[in-house]
Amino acid sequence: MGQLLSPVALLLLVSAASRAAEVLKPVVLLDPPWDRVLQEDRVTLKCQGFPPAANSSIQWLHNGSLISSHTPTYTIRSARAEDSGEYRCGTNISNLSFNISSNISSLSDPVQLQVRVGWLVLQAARWVIQEGEPIHLRCHSWRNKCVQKVTYLHADGRGVKYFHNNTDLHIPEAKHTFSGSYFCRGLVGKKNVSSETVIITVQGAANASISPSVLSWHLIAFGLVMGLLLAVDTALYFSVKRDLRSSLNTRKDYTFGWSKDILDK
Ligand SMILES: *[C@@H]1O[C@H](CO)[C@@H](O)[C@H](O)[C@H]1NC(C)=O
Ligand SMILES: *[C@@H]1O[C@H](CO)[C@@H](O)[C@H](O)[C@H]1NC(C)=O
Ligand SMILES: *[C@@H]1O[C@H](CO)[C@@H](O)[C@H](O)[C@H]1NC(C)=O
Ligand SMILES: *[C@@H]1O[C@H](CO)[C@@H](O)[C@H](O)[C@H]1NC(C)=O
Q: What structural domains and CATH numbers belong to the chain?
């Protein structure tokens, strides 16, 4: 009987443990959300998803090296090109830092920050967008200098939108045909300046066709696991019943009576 129980118990333990790890995993958020910035911009990274008591043990990694900040919010007051790269946060990383690539539950996924040198940078809250979701683009200038005659353009030169004064571009519903390379251009004083081009991907119905097969694989896996559990359960049921029968037959012990009722129901 113990041999039968252990696989079930193990399955339950494993699923509970993996769920707990998911819950405890922190996330790094950028506030404001721009992951491409210009030199001298202020950047704030927030480590979220910790129980408050764990605050003091928060650690930050920049390109895999520990940085001195131990607060849930890490601020770069004046960004430099060297601040570019991958940021992660976690607790008690020091002892684990030799093996960052392993799946340590207390370490966040990385967030990429790019600090560019130039007059303009095209910023987006996200570069990969689902069809139907809003797109928010910003043509940000160095030291927030005044930019006029701002155009958001496709890399092929096709203008998307023109603003006499610098204004964020909001597209309420993304279409997958919007996917492509974009940049922005404008006048800083009398200088005609452009940002670098960036790639925006709108995942449309074409990509969505992948999900039914993914779904069916999940269903098959789910079915197999349920089938296995049922088989184990059934085996367990009959083995317990047999054990009870034999003990009842030999000893007629009344304390087994209620369990027998439940099992025979
Ligand atoms: C943990 O951090 C949060 C947010 O920064 C703060 O509100 C809270 O007081 C902190 N708790 C402790 C115990 O430091
Ligand atoms: C690393 O582990 C050792 C021993 O387990 C412990 O004494 C030390 O405080 C730990 N260091 C950190 C930074 O957690
Ligand atoms: C554009 O900006 C200038 C100065 O920054 C301001 O005087 C003007 O009213 C603005 N125009 C519009 C249409 O907002
Ligand atoms: C900036 O230069 C481009 C050509 O490089 C030109 O097409 C565009 O009209 C200029 N923009 C302004 C606002 O003058």
A: 25-116 (2.60.40.10), 118-207 (2.60.40.10)
